[in-house]
Structures are given as structure tokens and as C-alpha cells.
Amino acid sequence: MHRPHDDDELDPTEAARLLARTEREAQRQFDLSPQWVNAVMGAVILVAYGSLWLSTRGQHPYTGPSLGVIALVYVPVAVAFAVSVKVYRRATAGVGGPSVRRQQAEGVAILVSFVLGSPVLQGAMHHHGASDAIVYGVIPAAAPLIIVGTTALGIAASKADRPLFGAALAVVIAGVVAAFAGPSGARLAAGIGLFIAVVAYAAATTRLDRSVPRRA
Amino acid sequence: MTADGLDPVIHAPARLRIVVTLAALPDGDSVSFTRLQDMLELTPGNLITHLRKLEDAGYLVTDTTGNGRASRTSITLTHQGRSALDAYTDALRLLLGSV
Q: What pTM, to 2 d.p., does this model score?
């Protein structure tokens, strides 16, 4: 890529080009959620939830997915998680300040709601004698979506982040639908809802990026 | 100002790229010297020279913590720097629009 030398005379057209190119490159490098990551997430969600739904469809009584399917689900989920962490680390390497501290606090809030929310409900349900279909079928599919989605809704509202608010709302609605869809249907509802949320978020952020006027 | 009405502090390839890169961060955030150098592919000496000019104009602040090899320099665009870039962009648009 040709870049004008530091001592070069810079004419306005060249300056405008350099400005636009540098801005695009900087935004790409600092981007925490590039579109290809959203595409990977969408694919992982479809594979994971689709496999769980197919493996539990029509079970009477509910026995849950087989170990093979669970392994099949956890591998892409682990890969997607590792990819996200790597992208985040690369984007924030050497970057500090108020927005980074806020993102870290938001990440902790999401993680805590994810890790604690569903197991606590499952434990309470099991303690009170709920069936396996509820404890191991409906709750693990629906509860994380409602709890994490609600946490994300609060974060989005506090930042007036419309794309995130819309995606979080879609996740909460998917969780509510999943809660009433039965142990197998819950996975299908959760998968479809999450996929829609990821795709809608990607589309909304892309549209927003295009509607923001470039500097030059 | 240059003859075109452009801010001469920003109107140099390296300094323009420094300011635009810093402006891509949210307000108040900083970037380390090493990361900025990697992104802009400038030599340390060259980058220091341009950072000093921008700092003298009040467009950015640098903050060094630690000593020797463990030292870390972070660079933050000031409000004045962000406003200067906005004004530079407006001037550029005006110039290009009138061509």
C-alpha cells in the first residue's frame, strides 16, 4: 500500500484519501466484534442447538442428549469462545481507558449471570422435585437466555446501544418462548432466537457503520 | 494555517494518520506507544518526533509509567485534538467540494 512519505507535500485529495484509509484501518483493528466473528457465532449456534434438538426430539420420557451430541456441541462452542477471546485481546492490546474498564465490568456481569443463573434455578427446581425434563431440558435452554439477555438489555439501555438492545430483547423473547416449548422444543426455540439475534445485530451494526458519515 | 486553510500540525502524512488513529478510540481512551507504532508502521524515532509536535500543540497527551525496559507510554487524544481533527476534516471537505 502506498503511503505518502512524512515530508511529502500533501494535496487535499491525497489527504482525504489517506484520512479515509487510516480511519477504516483503525476501526478494523479496534473492532471488538467483526462481522466474520458474528458469522462464526451464527453457524455455531445453528449447529449446537440444532444437534441438541435433533437428538432429543420425540423422547418420551425425556432422557436428554447423548454424550456424543454433547461433545459435538461443546467443541464448536469452545472454538467460538476461543476465537472471541483472541479477537477481543487483539483489538484491545495496548488500549486503556474508561471504555475498556466499562467493557470489562460488562463482561464480568454477563459471565456471572451466565454461570450462576441457570445452575441455581436447576438446583432449586431439582430440590423441589421437578422432573428431569424441566431441570435438564427446559431450564438449561431457556434460563440462560432470559437471565443473560436481561443483563445485556440493561447494559444496552445504559449505553443507548440500539443494536445491542434489539439483539438482547430477541434473546429474552427466545428464552420466554423456549420456557414454554417443552424440553426438546426449548433447544429449537433457543437456537432460532439466538441465531436471529446474532444476524440482526450484525445487520444493524453494519447499517449503522454505513450511515455514519466518514470524515472525508 | 496552510495556504489552503488546513491546520499545518495535522496536515502531514504521519501526523494525520496518528490523529485519525487515536480518534478511532472512544473519548478518553489511550493506546500504547508500541501498539500505535505497530499500527502505523513508523520507526520509534519518527513516531516520537511527530508525537512531540502534536503534544506541543495540545492535541494529545502522553503518559509514561515505570522505568527502563518496564516503562510504558500511553497516548491519548485531547478534546482539543479531536476538535482540531473535526475542523481539519471540515476544511478538507470545503476544499474538495469547491474543486
A: 0.80
